[in-house]
């Protein structure tokens, strides 16, 4: 098969959509090298490179297409796809080129979440309209839709009235490095590199209201004098981040909470920017805290399970799908429940060890090989 991908986020995005794109492209090329994979990239990247014997980067070649690269990605790339006899085009992040349904090329789109539809107040009016148009169009026109969780599948049916038979749930995986045990010498190197405490809780993700970092900080405040383990935060944000920092200052927690992404060293370090050091940071942590209100899947939960650390997450949306029987589940509105879970993780070592064991076992269903096989089955089912 000649398979093409919308690879914009694979080359340019350092968060969840980028990690998903790079992981699935890499996994497919590794386990199914008999196919050719074409990565449509609207502009050159100096952040991420994706290489392999069956992987081919495609950049716009005409001057106008290079100048208007976003239009090339959303419209004009169809010419290249048709000319090069592409069998299947996979939009990896909610989108398909407009008019691709008229080319005869089979199409698949991955839908990660419908958060702009579910929480419209968190987006500006123009952004909401753009997301609605792109997401709805892709779901209507795609031959198959990959939903990354049962929660996302239900939302696609609810908001866009798509027939269930068109949707396949294919869980995502994480970078295979999270499955690997990091050596003690490497842990010590990373601890010194980022000046990490001997013990710390870890929070990973964009610092936005939905991710719920403020409740984590409130939980840490409740533990003052009972459990003196600091919090390390990886992620960036705007107004909500300032709100969180204001709370931290009012409560005198500035020495207990470290925003690693604000460190000038981390901000310039390519191994931090590309998340290469993250598996080691996870494995150094006491537990991962991820009490988000809503996710499409919640990849940090899986990263935590693979890293063999306890995971504290929400009892809502798809997060029980990601954490299975292994996570500590809390009400994301309750700082008391979050604090109790943090205290339990840090003090009940027998229970924590059992949860880690369950987490590792549960994570085996999300390996790169299994997730790639699920996606390839969608391709083969579509093309016959």
Protein model, in words:
By secondary structure, the protein is α/β, with parallel strands linked by helices. Helix content is about 45%, strand content about 15%. It folds into 2 domains: about 1-175 and about 370-384, Glycogen Phosphorylase B (Rossmann fold); about 175-365, 3-Layer(aba) Sandwich (Rossmann fold). The strands form 2 sheets. The chain has a 7-stranded parallel beta sheet, sandwiched between helices. The chain has a 6-stranded parallel beta sheet with strand order 10-9-8-11-12-13, with helices on both faces. The protein starts with a strand and ends with a helix.
A few lines on this structure:
This protein is α/β, with parallel strands linked by helices. The chain has helices spanning 8-12, 16-31, 63-67, 69-83, 115-118, 125-141, 150-160, 184-193, 213-222, 239-250, 264-268, 270-273, 278-284, 299-306, 319-323, 335-347, 349-363, 368-383; strands at residues 2-6, 36-40, 55-58, 88-91, 106-111, 144-147, 167-169, 201-204, 231-234, 257-259, 287-290, 311-314, 328-330.
Keywords:
about 375 residues, alpha/beta, Rossmann fold, 2 domains, 7-stranded parallel β-sheet, 6-stranded parallel β-sheet
Strand content: 5-15%
What's the architecture of the largest domain, going by CATH?
A: 3-Layer(aba) Sandwich
The amount of helix comes to 40-55%
Distance between the termini: 11 Å
Shape: globular
Q: Total number of β-strand segments?
A: 13
Round the mean pLDDT to the nearest integer and report it: 95
Number of domains: 2
Major beta sheet, specifics? 7 strands, parallel
CATH class category name of the largest domain: Alpha Beta
What is the CATH superfamily of the largest domain? Answer: Glycogen Phosphorylase B
